Every structure is written in C-alpha cells, then in structure tokens.
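Entry 14. Ran structure prediction on the chain below.
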Amino acid sequence: MEGANRRLMWHGMCLFLLGLLTGFAEQRFANTRMGLAAHLEGVMNGIFLLALGGVWTEVRLSPRTKGIAYWTALCGTYGNWLVTTLAAAFGTAALSPITGAGHHGQSWQENLITVGFLTIGIAIIASSVFVLWGLRGRASS
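Output, structure tokens:
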C-alpha cells in the first residue's frame, strides 16, 4: 500500500472539509444537536485520519492486516460522519441519549441509525486495535 499515508491525509482533509460544511447546515437539520455532532464528527474524524496518515509508515503489520486497518479506518470515519448526519436529518434518537433527547424518527430510521452506529463503532475500534498493535515496541516488519 505505497502512498497510503498520503491517501489517509487526503481523506483526512476531505472529511475535515465535509465536517466544516456540515456546520453550515446545522440549523437546517431536524435535530440541531445531532447536526452539531455531525459537524464535530467530520472535523474530529478528519483530524484522526490526518494523524493516522502521519504515523502510517511506522505501523508494522502484514500487508493484509494493514489493508484491513486502512479500510476499516476509512469506513469507520466516513461512516461516523454519514450516520450522524443522517441521524440529524431524520431526527432520530438511536444510541444517542443526549443529542437525541426529545427526538424520535420512524422505526426504520431508528433501526438504520442503530445498525449504522454499531457497524461504524466496530470498524473504528478494530482499526484502532490493529494500528495500536502495529505500533507496539517490538513489531516485526
């Protein structure tokens, strides 16, 4: 995966920009608190990808595992922004007791957001575990 660090940084800036643009739309969402959360998810996950791109050459994993870490990081970060943005647009409260207080979407929307949040949660945790493992002290190349 040559050049993966630059691609991660590119995606980081892209997601950062999406987060900034989401901030302009906050007041238009059915759930403005969730809109603020979507804005912050884009910005923070973009910064995460920038940082990951900065350390990527130091991550020592097999090519297959490194590929899994790369794709789960991208899916988890973009997915987090997307699902949070959808939750804001739908006005759902799924898995978000603070930002979803006083809101409730249709049952299919709540189910979609629940599955989305669970899926991206698993993806970003898996990616973080792989990267942490690849950054351990005595990693083999």
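The chain has a mean pLDDT of 92. Will compare against last week's run tomorrow.
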